[in-house]
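Worked example

This section walks through a single chain of length 398. The input is the sequence exactly as stored; nothing has been trimmed or padded.
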Amino acid sequence: MRNSIPAVFAYTGCRLYQDILKHRFNDILNLKRPDEKSTLETHRALLFYEYVGNNLTTLDLIESILKTYQNVDFFLIIDDCYEGLIDENFLHGIKKMLNDNDNVTKIKILSSNKNIENKITEILDSNKMFRYFNIHLYMSEYDNIAPSEHTHVPNDQLREKKFLCVNRQERSHRIRTIDFLSKNDILNQTHASCLLGDYAPLLYDNVDFKMHNINVEKYQDPDLESVVLSNDSKQRLRKILPLELDIQNHQQKIFATNMPSLETYFNETYFSIITEGDFKNSTGKKQFTEKIVKCFAFHHPFLVLGLPGTLELLKDEGFITFSSFIDESYDQVTNDDKRMNMVFDQIKKLNNLNMHQMKNMYEDMMPILEHNYNHYLKKFAMNEPGDLVNEILDWYYL
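Given that input, the structure is written out below as tokens.
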């Protein structure tokens, strides 16, 4: 076996390293983390950094490593595969850091946000630094789904409810969706979750956001505090929240990563109403998350309250959506309110079907659901990102 390739972290960890490269490619790369950074005695090393919405000061962590080991050439691999949070400010920070340190001889940014490629090309003056990679399709385990061992046989009996709508972290479009379902008497046809959490200041006059320590970092919703609900909405939501499904309200902060399985609720509903992590077109992002991937794993059709172009991106990945059954033109609408209301209109139309009609529609969708299920398992089994592995090998053994 070749000598091990030293790999260090600029932060506490890195999913791309731990869940993908180490898991799938270690027999090829033979990655090894030095016990202590002070023992880094090599001419070349990989430097991993996972960006999770941290502020720009975290770039100081990278720079301190570069300055400490000025005689080491680094291949900097920036992991933005999970949430796609990199923005222009961060890229300008990277550019400055590269200008100030000449021992980064190669850099690769992997992101689940396909739209960030143009900004990377523009700011960093290269179209070779970007690699689109949605890690959710390749995670070895998430929410108790292990794709390599996963089997799912759809429930062919009449199901309990029409919809599944899971809402965890607080988002303005999520609270609006739950209010819509309640107002239109659809909530009683839905397995839904929505904990009270930081929605409380929106509903109760004697509670403010400071008391709840609301965090407006990039991975949360900075617009939540400015949400204005009507008195009718407040009254409805006070009566129903918290909606507890897979976790209890007091457990909200406990399950930060691995969540309880939702398989029971997928098997007892016909359609998912997915409220993605990002919704506003102003983010400029184009991506999807594990919320949709879980629908593939459990043979579930879906509507998406997410970013414009989400369904388009899924099709680019080889999945098939449900335009032959529902109107999916909402996917190309950039006006957020209009896009949301178009999704709501489709939910109303589906809700007008009785349970037997829903079952018949679901059965008619089965060829699509089977395709997506098999395509997901096939994609997971592919050894990706193979091109990154080749770049690492070519660089290290040059």
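What to look for: The longest strand covers residues 73-80.
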